[in-house]
Amino acid sequence: MAKPIMAKATAVWLVDNTTLSFKQIADFCQLHELEVQGIADGDVATGVKGFDPIANNQLTQEEITAAEESPLHKLKLKFNAAAVGEEKRRGPRYTPLSKRQDRPASILWLVKFHPELSDAQVSKLVGTTKPTIQAIRERTHWNIANIQPIDPVALGLCKQSELDKAVQKANEKKAREGAVMSDEERRKLVSTEQSLGLEEEPKMPAAIEGLEAFSLGGADIIEQDEDDRKDSDFADADSFFNLPEGDGEEQP
């Protein structure tokens, strides 16, 4: 249920000008029933001027009359077509003054490690402007030489869930466009929980890179050839040293 503007002042006016029950007023103004009773006793909202909900287009007299006649009737705000969708409108993210100096470092981190994020997504995450993002992307920012990339989550500029959601959205958009991603890019585009759950892919050491086409199957062939050889293929010791035939006595 929508809450009326200036709820406590509206409750003061309803207590003073109607015969509605404390519960009806409390439900309409989203207050506790004892708080409304305190308003009636003069213990709560002392000095608060009543806010007329009829004159301010929040209630109709017919609605108040129907509620006064039936204690079970719940007051309903008057429908205002001009206010439809107003509660969904959000302004730019507010960044405290103490953290505004950290925004360039966060932008540089997002641009470096998540280049798939659009300027609008980066702007929404850290609460900055598109010209600033563009200047950091093109390295034309006046202080670019002194900016070091820092995770915006670590700086408290956004939540990890918000960053994961933006990255996931970028992932889905890139998949719809049919772009081919490398394993490293795919790992960057998943959320933090999914990334931590992925198995580490084995990498070939740089020293033997390029030798993966060779196999050890030749060793079996060599071993098999050695087994198939006959004893006659090997010469005995006498033939190897080519000793002359004789009785083996030394010649003078």
Automatic annotation (TrEMBL):
Residues 172-203, 218-252 are annotated as: Disordered. InterPro entries: TrcR. Residues 172-190 have a biased composition (Basic and acidic residues). This is DUF1013 domain-containing protein. It comes from Halocynthiibacter styelae.
